[in-house]
Amino acid sequence: MDYYVGIGELCVARAPSTIVTRGLGSCVGVVLHDINRSVGGLAHIMLPSSTDFTSYTNPHKFADLAIPAMHEQLQQLGGRNFKARIAGGAKMFATISERAGFDVGFRNVERVRQVLRQLGIAIVNEDVGGSVGRTVTFEVSTGSVKVRSVGRGEQVL
Known about the structure:
Shape: globular
Largest sheet: 5 strands, mixed
Distance between the termini: 21 Å
Number of domains: 1
Radius of gyration: 15 Å
Strand order of the largest sheet: 1-3-8-9-10
Helix content: 10-25%
Number of helices: 3
């Protein structure tokens, strides 16, 4: 079964499933996978922290809320030993993002790393930074994570 994850969304699934997200610019795609239990998930993180806002309607767009939510959902599917792969966090608008605090891509990557560390989940590979958009395709059965970007082709994390 194929699933598509939009901005600020997440999806968890059992094998055999493919989960895809497109349009990762400053956003970060976070893949969690337990190969032994054949479960995994993908979150499309838009912003680093929900605490920067007084109200919001979608908690899954924030790293500090989406990753723990995905982790919990995967545990409910029987997952126990997770590894992470991350992609995205680009600096898409250099002239704007160079101003203090506006490099959302960098801030997203740093917060994703922090949340994963707090959950005790190791990042086994990543493709972050730069100035290119990315598409992530995650095969739950094998754990394969493919990252495609314009001008760089496809790589496997």
